[in-house]
Amino acid sequence: MNASIQAFGRRLAPQALPLAILVIVAAFALSEPAFLTPGNLVGIVRQVAITGIMAIAMTFVIMTGGIDLSVGPVLALSGVVTWFSLDAGVPLPLALGVGLALGIAIGMVNGVIVAFAGLPPIIVTLAMLSVVRGSALILGGPDLHSIRGQEAYSFIGSGSVFGIPVSVLIFAAVAIAMVFVQRATPLGLRVAAIGENERAATLSGHRTRLTKLSLYAISGLGAAIAGIVQSSQVHTASATYGEFGTELDVIAAVVLGGTSLMGGNGSIARTVMGVMFLGVMNNGMNILNVPLDIQLIAKGAIIVLSLALGELKS
Question: Which of 49, 135, 136, 195 could cross-link with 171 by S-S, CB 3.0 to 4.6 Å?
């Protein structure tokens, strides 16, 4: 009986997420025709772009059995540092470079401690969450810092090209780039090897420690990109952005995409689908005025169901 259930799960799992998205889109469209308007559909992607960028960047980390809980504070700190750079008169390209470099640096610190010191990723990144949040508060305080007179910077989060928000284009560019990395580069192969069997990958000559370091750097970069997009979108920077729960949404999107928290096979493309699933759910329930408590219960139930399907698949 157990074997037949697992066999059914293996057959169902690859199609479960696309089918679920189609079902809930149809349900919301029947309940509220405005759901399918082009403006609302573009709005859904715009709403999930920030979470999506971080989820895509964290997928490789989770595929190797790791996790990064520090992405929320990195988002906040990168936005604050970029704002301070712009406020000090630093040219926009250099200010963006400073914010992005900071995210990479924090990710590399996580990676060094996890890969070379051998400490558990959840403990390392939880500690880094606290350190980075405290650093952001020391630097910028709890206040909102308005971004004025920076039209080029504001264009990143608020502008559009041929009617498509720039934030959506950035999300798409990150997704395409990471799909390419996964499918057509040695890094993608090494990530898959570590996820399957880290010890075997090490014995085969793969530089597993350096690979892990680079993956946490990518995760930090994704959080920094998200922080820049968010601060330019809302025209403010604050050390309180990326509050507790941001990292949980990111991890939920990756898990919904079929990547196990224990490590193993994963897909950037399916992470994007997980992000869109959460976006459709949130948007549809908001349109239907579903109470927030019910929304939280529904999201939790969906995550548990996705984990159960993942176990059946394995």
Answer: 49
The CATH label, of 2.20.25, 1.25.40, 1.10.3470, 2.30.29, for the domain at 2-313 is 1.10.3470
CA distance 293 to 206: 47
Helix locations, 238-267, DSSP H: 246-256
Residue 237, H or E segment: strand 236-237
Q: Whose CA is closest to 125, among 61, 38, 211?
A: 61
Give first-to-last CA distance, the chain, whole Å.
16
Q: Are 227 and 24 in contact (CB under 8 A)?
A: no
Please state the length of the chain: 314
Does the structure show a pLDDT above 60 at 170? yes
Output the CA–CA distances (angstroms, integers) from residue 120 to 114, 129, 131, 194, 219, in the order listed: 6, 14, 17, 16, 17
Radius of gyration of the chain (CA): 20
Provide the 10 A C-beta neighbour count for residue 273: 18
pLDDT of residue 311: 58
Phi-psi region at 109: left, alpha or beta (left = phi > 0; alpha = psi -120 to 50): alpha
Mutual angle of helices 292-313 and 2-31, in 10-degree steps? 150
Mean pLDDT check: name the lowest of 41-45, 114-118, 143-147.
Answer: 143-147
How large is the average pLDDT for residues 55-82? 95
Domain boundaries, the chain: 2-313
Q: Is the Cα torsion angle 267, 195, 281, 231 positive or negative in sign? A: negative
Q: What percent of the chain has pLDDT over 70?
A: 92
Q: Backbone phi, then psi, for 263, in 5-degree steps?
A: 95, 165
Report residue 308: phi and psi, to 5°: -65, -40
Asked if residue 62 has pLDDT above 90, the reply is: yes
